């Protein structure tokens, strides 16, 4: 049965979009009728003022352009949240034999789930602990020894893993989770780079919608600031002229202040997260999170991992594909590993390091907003980070991963320095002179 707070979240999520629509319709009425028509263009006799047609029309044009932009970004956001939400398909539950490999895990998991609570906008820390462990990663031994679906991980060069080298696992969806995916309680599915469940937009903000969410709250902020300025200015004027305020304009001040403050907070926090290349969920323990990463050991180094080699690696390794489990002792004896093996070093970041931080706030913003000014301001194209065509990792990785590779000795050997033209000429001269000397 659904827990009350989850039901409340879902009910609020369904109520708020129609409520916002009503607010928009009322805002249009306030600016069009009581302000522009009845006060500026054809002032009612009670105002005893001359007609100001130019000001009225200018305000109407700016107001309707801004509200049009807000509605377009909101519809784009709603479209992605409903049509392309970034949900991961569920897998079939593990077999009885696989479940028997984790005798003590499930009761403990159930007990911890009861402690979970979450507010409407913010996922709580306990959710992260269940999937990633207290140090930011999954508990080892917390999952059935399922080997289905691993190919999409070990064919990459780097992926987030547990301490034993297997990817993180969602026991509700019964599947391995790609980097940065999170199980959303409200929709009961794993979501790619989930940011938060947002009742204001009626769904989950994730990698496919975070860009449009930022654009929506940013344009809402501009719209609210404009509405607040015009309502406040003309309310002050009316009070001066008549001694009383227009009730619709006063409500307009209240509404634009309220939504303006809310969208200001959301714009600043969303842009900050995008500049750090973090999701709201990752941000909850960003100062202490330790990421465990499986980083491919280059083929040229595999011979050095041989036990007879004199090189002692500083890391543990895991080799994919994993053998099917459970294996009987006879089957284990006869098991022949496949010819093509993928060996990964299991490395950990320092607490608070973010492997997805590309090293500059601008580069991180580009991952969400896009590479051109048009992409930044128009709600047209998807975020570059949602592009799944590049294959080395689920998301672009930054200097932290380069440092880990370097420290573990996994980087390719330095390229030979390209010789300059002068060096080449000098070499030729030296060769010619030595040739002459030998002839003499
Ligand atoms: Zn899940």
UniProtKB/TrEMBL annotation:
Kindly indicate whether the keyword Lipoprotein belongs to this entry: yes
Which residue ranges run through the membrane? 12-32, 52-75, 216-239, 251-278
Q: Where is the composition biased (Basic residues)?
A: 108-117, 427-440
Q: How does the record say this protein sits in the membrane?
A: Multi-pass membrane protein
Per its record, what are the GO molecular function terms? protein-cysteine S-palmitoyltransferase activity
Q: Which residues form the Palmitoyltransferase DHHC domain?
A: 166-286
Query: What keywords does the record list, in alphabetical order?
Result: Acyltransferase, Lipoprotein, Membrane, Palmitate, Transferase, Transmembrane, Transmembrane helix
Q: Which catalytic reaction applies to this protein?
A: L-cysteinyl-[protein] + hexadecanoyl-CoA = S-hexadecanoyl-L-cysteinyl-[protein] + CoA
Q: Which InterPro entries match?
A: Palmitoyltrfase_DHHC (IPR001594), PFA4/ZDH16/20/ERF2-like (IPR039859)
Enzyme Commission number(s) of this protein: 2.3.1.225
- Where does it reside? Membrane
In this chain, composition skew of type Basic and acidic residues spans 97-107, 118-134
One GO term (biological process): protein targeting to membrane
| Domain of life according to the entry | Eukaryota
Establish whether keyword Glycosyltransferase is in the entry. Answer: no
Any Gene Ontology CC annotation: Golgi apparatus
Name the principal localization, coarsely classed.
membrane
Q: Where is the stretch described as Disordered?
A: 89-135, 405-440
Q: Which PANTHER family match?
A: PALMITOYLTRANSFERASE ZDHHC6 (PTHR22883:SF23), ZINC FINGER DHHC DOMAIN CONTAINING PROTEIN (PTHR22883)
**Domain topic, free-text comment:** The DHHC domain is required for palmitoyltransferase activity.
- Family assignment from sequence similarity: Belongs to the DHHC palmitoyltransferase family. PFA5 subfamily.
Q: What is this protein called?
A: Palmitoyltransferase
Q: Give the classification, highest ranks.
A: Eukaryota, Fungi, Dikarya, Ascomycota, Pezizomycotina
């Amino acid at each position: 049965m659904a827990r009350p707070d989850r039901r409340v979240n879902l009910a609020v999520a369904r109520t708020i979009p129609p409520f916002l629509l009503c607010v928009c319709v009322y805002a249009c009425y306030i600016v069009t009728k009581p302000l522009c028509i009845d006060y500026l263009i054809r002032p009612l006799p009670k105002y005893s003022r001359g007609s100001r047609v130019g000001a009225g029309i200018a305000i109407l044009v700016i107001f309707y352009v801004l509200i049009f932009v807000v509605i377009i970004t909101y519809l784009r956001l709603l479209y992605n949240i409903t049509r392309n939400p970034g949900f991961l398909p569920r897998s079939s539950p593990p077999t009885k034999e696989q479940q028997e490999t984790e005798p003590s895990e499930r009761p403990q998991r159930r007990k911890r789930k009861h402690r979970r609570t979450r507010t409407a906008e913010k996922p709580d820390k306990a959710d992260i602990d269940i999937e990633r462990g207290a140090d930011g990663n999954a508990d080892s031994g917390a999952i059935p020894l399922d080997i289905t679906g691993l190919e999409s991980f070990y064919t990459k060069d780097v992926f987030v893993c547990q301490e034993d080298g297997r990817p993180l696992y969602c026991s509700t969806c019964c599947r391995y989770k790609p980097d940065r995916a999170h199980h959303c309680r409200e929709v009961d599915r794993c979501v790619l780079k989930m940011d938060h469940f947002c009742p204001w937009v009626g769904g989950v903000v994730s990698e496919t919608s975070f860009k449009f969410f930022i654009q929506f709250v940013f344009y809402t902020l501009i719209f609210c600031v404009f509405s607040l300025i015009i309502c406040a200015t003309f309310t002050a004027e009316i009070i001066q002229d008549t001694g009383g305020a227009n009730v619709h304009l006063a409500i307009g001040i209240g509404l634009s202040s309220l939504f303006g403050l809310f969208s200001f907070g959301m714009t600043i926090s969303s842009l900050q997260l995008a500049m750090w290349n973090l999701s709201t969920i990752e941000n909850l323990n960003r100062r202490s999170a330790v990421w465990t990463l499986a980083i491919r050991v280059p083929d040229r180094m595999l011979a050095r991992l041989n036990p007879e080699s004199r090189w002692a690696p500083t890391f543990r390794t895991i080799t994919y594909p994993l053998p099917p489990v459970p294996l009987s002792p006879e089957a284990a004896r006869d098991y022949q590993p496949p010819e093509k093996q993928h060996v990964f070093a299991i490395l950990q970041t320092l607490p608070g390091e973010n492997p997805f931080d590309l090293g500059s706030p601008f580069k991180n913003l580009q991952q969400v907003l896009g590479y051109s000014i048009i992409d930044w301001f128009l709600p047209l194209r998807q975020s570059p980070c949602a592009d799944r065509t590049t294959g080395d990792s689920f998301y672009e990785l930054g200097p932290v991963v380069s440092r880990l590779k370097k420290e573990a000795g996994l980087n390719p050997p330095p390229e030979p320095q390209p010789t300059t033209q002068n060096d080449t000429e000098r070499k030729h001269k030296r060769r010619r002179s030595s040739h002459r000397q030998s002839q003499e």
